[in-house]
Amino acid sequence: MTTSRRFADRKVDRFEKNITKRGAVPETTAKKGKDYPVGPILLGFFIFVVIGSSLFQIIRTATTGGMA
Q1: Separation CA 66–CA 48 (nearest Å)
Q2: In terms of DSSP H, where are the helices of the chain?
Q3: Which of 10, 35, 58, 60 has a CA 20 to 30 Å removed from the CA of 29?
Q4: The pLDDT of residue 24
Q5: Integer Cα distance of 40 and 35 in angstroms
């Protein structure tokens, strides 16, 4: 498949522009800040459920006499 000279020249120009920009990329594209993916209320509820269920399991195991 042949390409036109004009199309090839445009590709070369774009490539050369990118070469001159090399190294000028920001260190990270992610936002820096304290933006948590989960809200503090949801996180607190999750911790409450996990710790509460583990305490409930420990109490239930202690009252039934161990692992039987």
Answers
A1: 25
A2: 5-20, 40-64
A3: 10
A4: 67
A5: 11
Q: How far apart are CA 62 and CA 40, in angstroms?
A: 33
Assigned token pair, 11: 């590709």
Distance CA 67, CA 23 (A): 62
Taking only the tens place, the pLDDT of each residue in 23-43 is 766 666 656 666 778 888 999
The token duo for 62 is 């202690």
Which are the contacts of 43, defined by CB distance < 8 A and separation ≥ 6? 36
Tokens of 41: 């209320």
Contact 26, 32 (CB under 8 A): no
Task: State the residue for tokens 């590709």.
Answer: 11
Residue type, 41: I
